[in-house]
Specification:
The chain is an alpha/beta fold. 52% of the residues lie in helices and 14% in strands. It has a six-stranded mixed sheet with strand order 3-2-1-4-6-5, sandwiched between helices. Strands 7-10-9-8 form a four-stranded antiparallel sheet. α4 links the parallel β2 and β3.
Amino acid sequence: MTTLQATFPDRAGALRAASRSPLAREVHRALEAVPRGERVVVAVSGGADSTALAVLAVAVAPRGAWTVRLATVDHGLRESSAGDADAVESLAQWLGVRCDRRRVRVQPGARLAARARAARYGALVTAANDAGASTILFAHHAEDQLETLLMRLVRGAGPAAVGGMPMRRTLAPGLSLLRPLLERSRAECRALLERLGVPWREDPTNADRARVRGRLRHDVLPVLEALRPGAAVRASRAARRVRGAASVLKSRARRLLQGVGPWDRSALRRAPREVLAQALRMRLPLVSEASLERMVAAIRSTEVEPRRFQSRGEVLWVRAREVRLER
């Protein structure tokens, strides 16, 4: 660990105050899904959100006898990335927990953000496995969720994707991802750190309006918040309900296209339009939304002439009495 490079407050007092905050209740509620005494890793970038989550996790850990470790990943894509990792190590030292610092190399080129994300998650999974942890905590909050929802909506995504990021999912065998702050705001995280006097680092890429997410963050979300204060938190809660509805829809869709076919076209025609669309999405996961709409329209129409639709090596036949899927 590095020596402390920033001024931190009294640790005992800060953790005591953090444990009494509304955010601590959210983190504790989420951690109740983790068996007592297990190890958890907090993914920390050095920014305000993940710094707040690290403090909160350490503050509530005694309630479940959980052992907390921090993990940070240095992509080397920014001049300040090494300094960010140093700051995370200093934070861990102040909190009295171990820190796993990982370095990954991501080559410049197309889809840089997506490849960097994949490399980061891979490094965090390795860190968690090396630590014997069952859970990784991520600091995604309500504004992150709303940005994700808007990006997926304008892309024309299906119901499951429009439900946004889940609070909990399997990340790797025996390893869960947990987002305790998904229905709390960015402002709450910063307010907590300011009240405690805990420093954090600013990521300059967050101000980049050339990126879709950055443009939404600076030009769209403030307008929504001004129109409807608390918009991000309410949107994140709505996303949770959408995910629940999507789960029910998926169950019905799975029953609609059971087996390998062919399927009775009249039965498919009687099914609700969105159930049929979801069933086809599940059978043809790479189909475009435009092609999907044409398939649904063909099945529900009264035309009897055979129709053929191709999607990535698979062919959907819509005939007078049946629907068949062929490779």
